[in-house]
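Inputs:
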Amino acid sequence: MSSLAATLSDSVVITKRNLIKVKRVPDLIVFATLSPIMFVLLFRYVFGGAILLPDGISYAEFLLPGIFAQTVVFGSTITGASLADDLQKGLIDRFRSLPMSRSAVLVGRTLADLGLNVISVVVMALTGLVVGWRIHSSVGEAVGGFLVLLLFAFSFSWLMAMVGLLVRTPEVVNNASFIVIFPLTFVANTFVPLETFPTVLRVFAEWNPVSAVVQAARELFGNTVPGAPVADVWSLQHPVLYSVIWTAVILVVFVPLAVRLYQRTATR
Amino acid sequence: MTDAIVVEGLVKRFGGTTALDGVDLTVAEGSVLGLLGPNGAGKTTVVRILTTLLRADAGRAEVVGLDVVRDADAVRASIGLTGQYAAVDEYLTGAENLEMVGRLYRLGRREARARAGQLLERFDLTGAADRPAKTYSGGMRRRLDIAASLIARPRVLFLDEPTTGLDPRSRLGMWDFIADLADGGTTILLTTQYLEEADRLADRMVVIDRGRVIARGTADELKAQVGGQRLELTATRGEVLPAIAERLRPLAVEEPHVDEQARRLSLPVSGGVEVLAEALRRLDGHIADVFDMGLRRPDLDDVFLTLTGHAADDGATDSGATDSGATDSGATDSGATDGGGTEDAATTSRDTPPAEPVPTGGAR
């Protein structure tokens, strides 16, 4: 078997293993479906009335791309927590003692978590349709919108893989990633327009890749109106390109780093 | 016979601590090596280096003639590892676990399934094959773990403390499985803190302490290093022991050890049962004070204490083959606990067949 074919075949075995767990552990399904539904409903009906938007945009239309982005980024933390769990239980030792591809455990893990994120996005989109969110663009653009969201989350999974292998305790991975991911997804245009932010936070939010991903999704779903002001910074003027650049850079940096770390990691 | 494992001058440091300080060992093809040592001695580090999980800082290690660093992939294809944790995926069923590992060993789908079925049967897991491993008992998990490491018929099997944490009955069952594997020709490197376990399963032993090999040889050779047999006597009352010791002293080759608290006397002697007969003759008049008496060859606990100056492990004391330890693994299927001295001694002899303790001379 060539090494690429071997990597693919091993990755499929590992992805399957991880997806079986999704099927058997109700918590994961709940995390992947119920909590996004709850977020959509909470923000739509609790905050929706209090947040001022330019004329012509409903809060549901503004909100959904933001919720998508926040959920898939949070979803990627599962990668880190699951790897830390495998490490603690000695499974990584077992995998590393097998004549399998060196990257398959990570590829299989991140692909399974991508799958979980697809489920989340589908559930959120359906909920969104119920509360008044609509896609106004072409099918191609809409697909592009989902791709930007999911690929960014996929790259984030690789970063989280690295964190999981370094931190080694699932609970700590969860807590540590919340400290980073909460500001990252809230200090952004996810739930409110940037104009209300104090200057320092606004500058951070304008260059925050999550803002660009959200803006890209809004544009690709047609959830913006022509006259609505967009911050006059390159990142938000070219949100799709900026998101793709971030996604690519994270992958280029963290895929090799995580694979290298995996090869040296053993249960202590 | 060729060597399936060759280790030379292995050194491994973790930060400031030296885990391995020049370990050498070989394991002949088809044999079982017991790697013994207390917690933290470096046993697991040796296993991790041999199974390609860790790299040594110095030295060289070969498994089936392949260098563990240069030919790591080929080494992995020839070995099976069962680590200290039962490394099974608890959400997969027993069958799914084995098939997954089989596929990752590059077996075809059909072959992986067939092997999984065979191993589930061999390890008494057929009934639980379709239940998630989460529902398994500790012993079942451990069996599943070993089954997983056997799926591709490895030439060399590494078992890192395979019975730690198992209840006595599961431990005995595991010993039978391991003994079967060894009979089938698999080379096995087994680490353990249970001296009884090594005594029962291993052809040869290497004892390490603080990262160095401190002794090696067969169980008998190690025991010979510690000295010959001793006559052990338990009295009904502690006060009579000094008098008894005085009477038996002429038989001793070294100073007798009296423990009045435990009502026990230990007397290094040389010779066979005739010593016992002579002792009985000398005890004339004191026989009523003797609860139990017998000849005992040193067991590995004694070896360990002598070699390292400390016991193998706190937990190892309960697996020792002294008369009180017999209840540990023997009591599951016999009424030894309520018996007198004779039954205790009989249980002891069943526990450690290689140690061949001579049956006790007299009991009241």
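Chain A has a mean pLDDT of 91. Flag for discussion at group meeting.
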